[in-house]
Structures are given as structure tokens and as C-alpha cells.
């Protein structure tokens, strides 16, 4: 049976509480804006000409490259002109669900953990491991869209096999100078500073002064490496952290203060402009999505 290719969807939210798998192919596609998710993303590059930016680090992708993206990481695909279609597998995994499949001895989320020694966002697969990962993803697409008996159980089995294999590859990965990321020491320092101090007042002028560079130089270098302005990145970082805190049950007013917004009104407008709803409405939807059928029947 030939592999099924899904029409591209621009949504960046999961509709499932477990996983979603896509096999995308497009001859022409505009760049996707810098964004983040509430879930883990596993991206397997098949063909095309693509640069992928994750937290200010750029990767020029080659066939078989596998990207691991966690909820707090801002990222963006930049599609370059090519005679080959842009083709990839994209697997979304709910963090709570993936943790529920783990055991005390086997943490399937470890490959996404930036604090883990040797962590990398890219695994350049080769040989048998390349074909193994691709074969599992192809089978997962067939099970997810084929409607065969037992496809739900077969899909879980494939994901377990895939995530064990991916974690093994992540542990064994070694630097490859031909596939190394393209990064800027200045931008890396600025991103680290924003990551640690997003709850405090931050401006382009203040960051330029902190790192002893001109405002214009920092602005150009940041735009080149990250794909957006310093101001926009700070806002996205704050909103990203705010959404994660809201999912953890932190009150909206406290989230506003902790994430560096001057007042709740500014936070509300920024959050609604980005996500199409206010912070408290978002919290309500999260609670509803996590409710058991018994809890929903009692409400």
C-alpha cells in the first residue's frame, strides 16, 4: 500500500490527547513564522532545500536529519527554492501522554531535555538507523489513517519502538563538522539572557548595552539568525512561558507578573492577539481537555 500524504495544515495546536502524525509534501510553501508548541515535535526531513532555525541556531538539513523540538523552543522552517518537493514526517506527542508510556528505568522524553548532557536538537541518522526511523514513521502514518482493526494499539507499539530508537540515537550522537549548526556567539548570549530574565524589563537598547554592541548591529544579527526582531522574540518568549504556567494552574494575574508584562491589561491583549482567547478562557479549555468523561458528566 502506498504511503499516504496529508494536505498541509497550518494549525499549531494538537486536537488529540496522545499524538498526531503527518506526512507532508509540497512543491511550493511559504516560510512558517517563528512559533512554539505545547507538545513535543519530532521532525524527520526527507527532501527539499530547507534551513531550520531553533532558538537562534540554524541547521541546513540533509536527508535523514531528525529534529527534536520541546515545548519551550521557538523554531521556524525556512524553505529555499528547490527542484525537489519539500517532504517530511512530523510527529506531535503530548508530554503527559509520552511520560505515561515511560517507566522508572526508561524516560522516553529524555531526548527532548535540553539540560541533559550532550543534548542536541538534531540527530543526523545514517545507515540502518535512518531506514529504521523512516520505516516506523511510514508504518505509523498507515496505522493512523488506514482504519484497520487494532490500529490504536499498533500505533502505540510503533511509537514506543520509535522513541526507544530515537533516545538511543540521541545518547550515541557525536559531533559532525559537515552537519554542524550555524550559530552566532552574540545571538546565543542574548537568547540565553532573555531566557533567564524574560520576567524582567528587557529592551533592545538595554541588551545592546549589556553586550557592548550597537543597537543596529544587534538588531541585524538577531534578525538574521532568529528570523524575527528582538522585541518580537521577547514577546513570544513571555507568551510561551505564560501559556505553560497557565497549563500548570498558575493564576493569570500571577502569570502576568512573572512573565514580565507591565500590567494585566497588556498581558491580556498580547495573549488574546496571539492565541485568539484570553488567559482565563485558555485555562478553562485546558481544564476541560484534561477532564475525565466522569468529571465532564458531572459538570
Explain what the structure shows.
- It is built from eleven helices and eight strands.
- A hairpin with a 2-residue loop joins β3 and β4.
- The relative contact order is 0.11.
- With 299 residues, the protein is an alpha+beta fold.
- The strands form two sheets. The protein has a five-stranded antiparallel beta sheet with strand order 1-7-2-5-8. The chain has a three-stranded antiparallel beta sheet with strand order 4-3-6, with no helix packed on it.
- The chain folds into two domains: 161 residues, Regulatory protein AraC (Jelly Rolls), CATH 2.60.120; 105 residues, Homeodomain-like (Arc Repressor Mutant, subunit A), CATH 1.10.10.
How helical, in percent, are the residues? Answer: 40-55%
**How many angstroms does the end-to-end distance come to?**
45 Å
Low-pLDDT sequence parts: 293-299
Give the number of DSSP strands: 8
CATH class of the largest domain: Mainly Beta
- Give, in spatial order, the strands making up the sheet with the most strands: 1-7-2-5-8
Percent of sequence in beta strands: 15-25%
**Order of helices and strands, N to C?**
EEEEEEEHEHHHHHHHHHH
Corresponding CATH architecture of the largest domain: Sandwich
Q: Based on helices, strands and strand pairing, what is the structural class?
A: alpha+beta
CATH superfamily of the largest domain: Regulatory protein AraC
| Number of spatially distinct domains | 2
Rg estimate, integer Å = 20 Å
Q: What number is the mean pLDDT?
A: 87
* Tally of helical segments: 11
Amino acid at each position: 500500500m502506498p504511503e499516504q500524504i496529508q494536505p498541509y495544515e497550518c494549525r499549531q495546536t494538537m486536537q488529540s490527547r496522545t499524538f498526531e502524525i503527518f506526512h507532508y509534501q509540497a512543491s511550493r510553501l511559504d516560510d512558517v513564522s517563528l512559533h512554539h508548541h505545547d507538545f513535543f515535535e519530532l521532525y524527520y526531513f526527507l527532501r527539499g532545500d530547507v534551513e531550520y532555525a531553533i532558538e537562534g541556531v540554524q541547521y541546513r538539513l540533509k536527508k535523514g536529519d531528525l529534529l527534536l523540538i520541546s515545548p519551550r523552543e521557538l523554531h521556524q522552517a525556512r524553505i529555499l527554492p528547490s527542484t525537489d518537493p519539500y517532504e517530511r514526517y512530523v510527529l506531535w506527542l503530548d508530554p503527559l501522554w509520552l511520560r505515561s508510556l515511560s517507566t522508572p528505568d526508561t524516560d522516553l522524553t529524555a531526548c527532548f531535555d535540553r539540560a541533559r548532557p550532550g543534548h542536541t536538537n538534531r540527530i543526523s541518522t545514517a545507515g540502518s538507523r535512518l531506514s529504521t526511523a523512516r520505516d516506523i514513521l511510514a508504518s505509523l502514518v498507515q496505522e493512523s489513517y488506514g482504519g484497520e482493526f487494532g490500529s490504536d494499539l499498533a500505533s502505540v507499539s510503533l511509537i514506543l519502538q520509535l522513541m526507544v530508537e530515537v533516545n538511543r540515537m540521541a545518547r550515541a550522537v557525536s559531533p559532525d563538522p559537515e552537519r554542524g549548526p550555524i550559530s552566532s556567539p552574540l545571538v546565543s548570549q542574548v537568547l540565553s539572557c532573555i531566557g533567564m530574565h524574560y520576567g524582567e524589563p528587557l529592551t533592545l537598547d538595554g541588551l545592546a548595552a549589556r553586550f557592548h554592541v550597537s543597537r543596529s548591529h544587534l538588531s541585524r544579527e538577531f534578525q538574521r539568525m532568529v528570523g524575527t526582531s528582538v522585541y518580537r522574540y521577547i514577546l513570544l518568549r513571555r507568551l510561551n512561558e505564560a501559556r505553560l504556567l497557565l497549563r500548570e494552574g498558575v493564576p493569570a494575574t500571577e502569570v502576568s507578573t512573572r512573565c514580565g508584562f507591565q500590567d494585566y491589561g497588556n498581558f491580556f491583549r498580547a495573549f488574546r492577539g496571539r492565541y485568539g482567547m484570553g488567559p482565563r478562557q485558555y485555562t478553562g479549555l485546558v481544564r476541560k481537555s484534561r477532564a475525565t468523561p466522569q468529571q465532564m458528566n458531572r459538570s
